[in-house]
Amino acid sequence: MASLRPIRRLPTPLIDSITYRSRPATHCFSQSCRNRATVGLDALDASKGDRERIVILGSGWAGYVLSQRLSAKYQTLVISPRSYFVFTPLLNSTATGTLEFRTALEPVRSKRKPNIEFMQGWADDVDFGRKMITVEESVVDPHQGKAMAEDRREDHSTGEVKSEKKGLRKEGKRWEVSYDKLVVTVGCYSQTFGTKGVKENAFFMKDVGDARRIRKRVLECFEVASLPTTSEKLREQLLRFAIVGGGPTGMEFGAELSDLVHQDLSKLYPDLAPKVRIAVYDVAKTVLSMFDEKLGKYAMQTFRREGVEVRTSHHVQELRPGLPRTGSDENMDDVADSQGCYTLTTEEDGDVGVGLCVWSTGNMMNPFVQKALDKTYGFPSSSASITDGKQPDELDTKEWMIEKHPKTGAIIVDDRLRVQLHSKTSPSSDEKPASSATMTDVFAFGDNAMIRDAQLPATAQTAAQQALWLGKRLNKGDLESQHFTFKNLGIMTYLGNSKGLVQTEGWLGDISGRAAWLIWRGAYLTMSVSWRNKILIPVYWFLNWAFGRDITRF
Amino acid sequence: MASLRPIRRLPTPLIDSITYRSRPATHCFSQSCRNRATVGLDALDASKGDRERIVILGSGWAGYVLSQRLSAKYQTLVISPRSYFVFTPLLNSTATGTLEFRTALEPVRSKRKPNIEFMQGWADDVDFGRKMITVEESVVDPHQGKAMAEDRREDHSTGEVKSEKKGLRKEGKRWEVSYDKLVVTVGCYSQTFGTKGVKENAFFMKDVGDARRIRKRVLECFEVASLPTTSEKLREQLLRFAIVGGGPTGMEFGAELSDLVHQDLSKLYPDLAPKVRIAVYDVAKTVLSMFDEKLGKYAMQTFRREGVEVRTSHHVQELRPGLPRTGSDENMDDVADSQGCYTLTTEEDGDVGVGLCVWSTGNMMNPFVQKALDKTYGFPSSSASITDGKQPDELDTKEWMIEKHPKTGAIIVDDRLRVQLHSKTSPSSDEKPASSATMTDVFAFGDNAMIRDAQLPATAQTAAQQALWLGKRLNKGDLESQHFTFKNLGIMTYLGNSKGLVQTEGWLGDISGRAAWLIWRGAYLTMSVSWRNKILIPVYWFLNWAFGRDITRF
């Protein structure tokens, strides 16, 4: 475990010769601010008072939504490597210029919620016995805003990230902070299945930095393709966009990209738009497999009409920078001459040159869950209660572990979202069944957890429902008498050209086409968190309808 | 001169297996698009028809405004290393979150103006005899969006830029394009007076990438300062913001930063806001010296009340990464531990640790003007006419040069904005006066030019008035009978806390305070180019008034 460096306290800061004259009228010493402690752990403890401190690890759909729900009867402390929440369903729209990036973001720190404290850092370790979290600082962190596809300590990242890191220490300073209740909602990383070159060269779509990179690169491909020095062959490859993963995220990106090309870029680059090729690759035989057959067929028809090629049963083998090497064309195999293009290799099609490759094939367990929460502990008697009636004197002699799903590595929780423990059985005594226990003050949900024997989809809907349920229970204090049940509100996706799919189990049934698109937009507008974004999103929809998307590239 | 690589034309592009089905309804083959040629020089020539081609170098206040003004009777070709125009007076607002970045941007390519062609590249050379420009491509260019403080070929840039460049060739491909009329509006670079470390470490404020870096860094400083691992001493330095240059840009940034701190950050970080120090350094005895004394005094009072310290008669000696080295504190002098802070050294105050230093001390001549336009030419008889009645047979025996201001290096133009030539007199024959000539089809204005014997301010107002005047003359074809005269519409600046200064020579007179701020906002809203931004800017003003600035950092 990392050592804790206490905060150094200098006697009194030297009065600076540059004096500061505050404007009292606008300064905040009002009631609403009094609960906020921003500097130092002592200040945090002082402002906590006699409240319980709930520490939430992560600021995604699970952690952020819970933090918003918890009442001021708790001191809520969010610890996350990024300082904002991403409204992920709108990321595709921001990547293609239909919306501005910030419409998909909400800062964790907010004037409206002075009971929420925030520390920007990576959760590094947990001591369940002492009820302490170790945090590594991450404010000046080059990974920020980008999807993670591997442990940050195994740095295979691009040159840009590496050099930004130069001059910064490899590991941030650490500190410890105590909790009364702990919520593990760190989410998942992007899954690459170890495919060669993908971690380094693919464009992911998990965070706002990813969306920004994609938007910039797509527009850059058009600009390079329009240069008089660009050969017809390079032009073809610049304008070929590959998407790997036929789930809703990948398909929606294809649809939005097709809209951008047809509705806007075709007017600015009339000679280039017909050369554009958008292809979605998936290893499975179908895409959007969660929709029933009729809707799936409609989706395929719509994509075909929009020129989005769906290449199912394709196996990606590699993604590397530079253009495909061909014997006949010597100049083309130089990375320096490839204008940022990539070569995508599939078992079925061989090497194909692409302008960019968006990777969206699902989740990989978070290294924090995989490593930090994979230790053995003494029985945390202040936090856990035995579930299977073992004797208390047996407890001390056993080593305990967090129970995880054997395949996905997700934390197993009960239907109150409480983390489950089991005693470690030594290999020699495997006839003796393991004991099991429940952590009464450690919760986990969202993508990094799984309710025992329940197969809930790894979606924003699931995470948000769990967060709202847990928040309500904690506010009311009636957790013991309640159980979480998932209510499937349906699934939806955008297909491009103002058409969508909505599939519900309720009275609404299945809808496709323009009505489904309107429901899609309406649902996300309703769900968006702040009034700022509830106003901005329709303003941008209107502006882009009236004037076209903003194609400024910066 | 660089060699020209002709565009390779492959016989016929191989039909890709991924076929593309276009949506005819949304495709653009309408009248308004017919004039646009996007791919290749042949297409450019074909769409030119019998029109004259006006090539504009640069997309700032001079070049962009002219391109918007020119009618479709010309084929307008803008060549610029960046693909957009920056509405510079709003940059400070975007850097502090009062406005979104894109509200200060307009793309050069626009659906509304199909007669404007664009090529993204650096003007590299001009052949006045053949009427040809050599262009170096710059789409995938790491300098994009950032202020330039030196020739891009002398790369002293930060690690980030350098590594992004890795894998890209050091010089882009070049091509030639012909012009009928040429307009040199490449603007200026940022002046650092060779101050040590400034090019590498200062935050400039000329382009949108600069504004984005500043916004991110300011918010980052607060977040790092709030970490429990941050010492009181480091905190003090993180929250000290230095601005060098007491002109309107620097002072306005100080004012907007003070607003951000008082109006928003004070609520989110109540313990940190009182520790913030904002200081403006200037080598002169006064700041905002273009305003008359009464307004200047009002400005100083306002700044004082807002806690913006003005340190006149200060000489900056160095800006380096890391914190000031002090004997007593060994841990502090390590760059890796400085959390991105800098040390600013002035002759008067010695070393001071700062969170960031914004550099805004004026203009340096553009290297294109300084180097590429500093050659000797044979007399370009198709383009120039002798102004002082020399014999035509004398012309061929002389070497001609573009006339420049001896101190600033600005291109000297006549009151029709036409570039002036003078014959090169050899040192041995200095008794013989130089002949002079006027280029009839080469224009220069904005920051990189100077009307002979006129001292116009190097402002957006000057450049825009010149652009509008020249556009009108060229559209009407009455250049010969007209002269440009500058009409001083007054100067204005923002002082923070909803106060401003307006000074006009006309009936409006001098105004200070809230009314001046309203005029300031109104003027910029009126001047903003597109309807998109005319709608977005007040929407953001409203949202930030209602909900506070967006402090999301990404």
From TrEMBL, chains A, B:
Residues 490-550 form the External alternative NADH-ubiquinone oxidoreductase-like C-terminal domain. Residues 143-167 are annotated as: Disordered. Residues 148-167 have a biased composition (Basic and acidic residues). It comes from the Eukaryota. Keywords: FAD, Flavoprotein, NAD, Oxidoreductase. The keyword Flavoprotein applies. Pfam families: NDH2_C, Pyr_redox_2. Gene3D superfamilies: 3.50.50.100. One of its GO terms (molecular function) is NADH dehydrogenase activity. GO terms for cellular component: mitochondrion. The keyword Oxidoreductase applies. Residues 53-367 form the FAD/NAD(P)-binding domain. Belongs to the NADH dehydrogenase family. This is FAD/NAD(P)-binding domain-containing protein. It comes from Letharia lupina.
